[in-house]
Amino acid sequence: MSSLSHTVSDSLVITRRNLIKVKRVPDLIVFATLSPIMFVLLFRYVFGGAINLPDGITYAEFLLPGIFAQTVVFGSTTTGASIAEDLQKGLIDRFRSLPMSRAAVLIGRTVADLGLNAISIVVMALTGLVVGWRITSSVPEAIGGFLLLLLFAFAVSWMMALVGLLVRTPEVVNNASFIVIFPLTFVANTFVPLESFPSVLRTFAEWNPVSSVVQAARELFGNQPASAPVPDAWALQNPVLYTIIWAAVILAVFVPLAVRAYLKTSTR
Description:
The two termini are 34 Å apart. The protein contains twelve helices and no strands. By secondary structure, the protein is an all-alpha fold. Helix 2 (26-47) crosses helix 6 (104-130). The longest helix is centred in the middle third of the chain and has 28 residues, at 139-166.
């Protein structure tokens, strides 16, 4: 068996192991989907009436791409917390003692969490349809929007995998990641147009990769009205390309770093 097929085979085994674990702990998937539903309902009906939007779009259509992006980024923290928990319980050491591919444990973890993110997106999309969100683009464009969200989520999961290998407990993963993820998702075009931002924050938000994911999703779902102002920043003028570049850079940097940390980290 070649090295690549060995890695794929081992990764599928670990992915299946992680998905079975989710099946046996249904609370995990229940709370992972309830939180996005709460955000959709809260922002749609509490804040929606107070936010000015360009003509030709409802707040539900503006909001849902932002909620999609926020949820997949927050969902990536599950990867770090799960790896930290496995490390704390000594499971990682047992995996390393087996004749397995070096990257299989991390690939299996991130792929399984990608499945959880896909389920969350489906639940949010159904909730969005109930509150008035609609896809007005073509089917290929809509599929492209969902795939782009999942690609970005997969890349961020590798960042969180490294965090999970470097900290001591799963609780620290959540606290540490929120310090970075919370401002990234809120200092962006997630919930309000960037025109209302102060100049410094607006510049940051225009080049924030979360903003480009949201902008790309809006365009691919047909939720960007013709009357919307043209963005000043190149990142938001080319959001699909900018997002793919960010995902590629994150994977190129954090996959080798996470695998290296996996080989060196010992049980605490």
